Amino acid sequence: MQEHRFTTTACPYDCPDACAMRGRFDGGRTILAPNPDLPYSAFLCAKGLRWAERAT
What we know:
56 residues; three-stranded antiparallel sheet; 2 helices; single chain; N-terminal domain of TfIIb; alpha+beta; globular
């Protein structure tokens, strides 16, 4: 089984929440998700979740 390595980053949008996110590459795709280690930022808005599609 392949091990996935996550990278911690922040949402690039300039909104007041400054959501923390985790990202990983999986088969040539970038997968973004909320960072569960930070309870104050345990969600991402629709724009943040779709950032990988826009950036690639």
